[in-house]
Predict the structure.
Amino acid sequence: MSQEVIVALSTFPDPETARKISRELVENALVACANIIPGVESIYFWKDKVEQGAEVLGIFKLTAARFDEFSKRLRQLHPYDVPEIIQLNIVEGSTDYLRWISESCSRI
């Protein structure tokens, strides 16, 4: 495989926002795939206090070469002041699936 494939994570306030942003990222070949997982409960420190709330988790598959552009666009689209944007490196995976991600992120 010619390109390193990664996973990125981000949380969203609701499923509609996650869907809208995920669709744009896939349509523009910044990611090959987005999984949206509703019903995530987050507990976090924000503005000097502990907060708790429902969120939606987005899991994105993309190439490392597209991460900077993905991250920039996600920041532009995201409603949070400080959106979660985390990159996870993939150590091993199905060759066919990783190839599909590389091809999908290279189509534009």
